Amino acid sequence: MLVFNHEDELILESHIGVNLPHESHPYPCIDPDNLHAGHGHGHGGGGSSEGDAGEMEHTCLEWKNNARLNITHRFLEGGANCYSLAWQSLSPDVSPMDCYPVGDELKGQGHWYGGGESLSATWPLDRGHIALSAFITGDEVSG
Fold it and tell me: In the chain, what are the domain boundaries?
């Protein structure tokens, strides 16, 4: 996935669904309420890359029998954009995963902030290592 700013400069390059079968390719989701459309527009819609504040666009991609990805693009005040990606596994054997390069300022990569609090975490998160594991809320000490 490539994200560009309003001047068409690449600001984020990510690899989505890295653990999905390589022979599987995404297709627009089938909307049971509208079999003629694979993607739609939310409140106010508009297909342009420069929407009005409060507008949003929605896209759905499906890897047949593996996973579904819903992408929501919200246009915020001041020309800012907010993207939300939500995966749905369609098989008990599939756990979709995305990869985002962070921490190399010479390549224009930013830092990763957020996630849960951990006793051994460094901040920003790209300065440390977090083992791949389930994210379970609660107090680490009390178990």
Answer: 14-91, 100-143
